[in-house]
């Protein structure tokens, strides 16, 4: 580039800001120097952006400032120039009405912040559920070299002499309290016993799943997903990531070279082996959409049929992430899957997926089962089809009740979440354990934001009878920490007049997971008649971000991204600011 157009000369992108010997270069460097940076930092060395989603209202990410300091050590050591910048953060337990409403907004923030600034490579600091996919989506649309460094899980919860898991035991305790099996005093005591260190949920919920997904995709360094947030080895790995991203800039190892179709197939198989969250499906589809990688909803089903379910973690099993790390973490799982994976897929370590895990050792076969002795096979997230979900639905087999996987029952319909809360515990509610609970208006446009409401609470009168699971279906998502025979992500959603909107009390619904079928036993003629009567509700917002969201959000089978965000715009910024 010519210097007199305001763009400096230099090997890397950042020279376009810091390399100019003119007014533009003066402006870009001079104000940065007010922080005390010496002149040699602007000599053309790689500038590394550390994209920090730290926030005190995202408790899972509140410690990321310390992780950023470790990354900076590595960047300095390798001859780079580290600069931390904040982005929007999404606190799963605090934000209303749901963080999913804001995932795309955070992705836009990340994308534009990376592109608009003088970065040659980025470290993505994330942790809580949506922060990981939002950062990957945004960064993928810019396509610089990038490494994901997640903040790590909390230590195991400890309550009355036993381990408890975040999320999973909240649902269990809540049912126990409602059924009279737990006192209110114990319930409130458990609160501080569950979240007792920095970090994200330590079950195999969505945060641990997405951290594992980043590692399986080759975007996070080996073992990075499982090291507890407070373990010193997390900070050593973060320092190594800081050094490695500088090398990646020299190698021009961009995200698009790592996020190939093979990498996505690896992630899908690993997700089945770890019993990962159903939210993985939505986020992976959205990431693939940014890169133009062709991924269909049915790929998620076809690729997992033979995959052994190996990781015995809550909510599908017994243990927690701390145990998973001590057992050897994700490298052990990937080594066990061996030839099922694309071993030659490139990763941020500079080595292939197979090379990364060649020396992995399993230190606890109760936590990570060997491939020859799996917990189950093909027990990941199945994709359902049928007249109730023409564009698909999902069910997490490993977290469901085997006896309910083939079930026909009478629909008990809740028109929206307010209707459910108003009638759930009424003695008048005509329901028994053979019924199928149906929730409408909980999809991307309908709620809006597709909240984690799909694991509908069971009616109190059934809990008191000792019933602990029923078939439940909706266009909502559910927390990765949840369990039960729960059909989610029905597409098209009810708010758009999809078949789910047409279900009435008393209709018979058939779930047949073995044949991947979800069927509403109502004639086509009757469905047509009901469809003609369907009246959409008025839009939930007429201005602001929520209007943008409702106008542009895609359905679950397309990853719930915005239609205008699919694809990438690259890293070029053609014009100067002054
Ligand atoms: Fe943040 Fe679970 S609430 S990971």
Can you offer a commentary on this structure?
Helix 3 (64-77) crosses helix 9 and helix 11 runs antiparallel to helix 12. The chain has 578 residues and is of the alpha/beta class. Mean pLDDT is 96; it is low at 1-6. 34% of the residues lie in helices and 12% in strands. The chain starts with 14 loop residues before the first helix and ends in a 26-residue tail after the last helix. The strands form four sheets. It has an eight-stranded mixed β-sheet with strand order 9-10-14-13-12-11-15-16. A four-stranded parallel β-sheet has the order 2-1-3-4, sandwiched between helices. It has helices at 15-18, 23-32, 64-77, 100-116, 131-140, 168-178, 184-194, 206-217, 232-251, 255-258, 261-274, 279-291, 297-302, 321-327, 330-337, 353-357, 417-423, 460-463, 524-533, 544-552; strands at 47-52, 81-86, 121-126, 146-150, 157-159, 162-164, 308-309, 376-377, 381-384, 393-396, 406-414, 436-439, 471-474, 486-488, 508-512, 517-520. The longest helix is centred in the middle third of the chain and has 20 residues, at 232-251. The structure holds FE2/S2 (inorganic) cluster. FE2/S2 (inorganic) cluster is lined by residues 60, 92-93, 128-129, 166, 200-201, 205, 207.
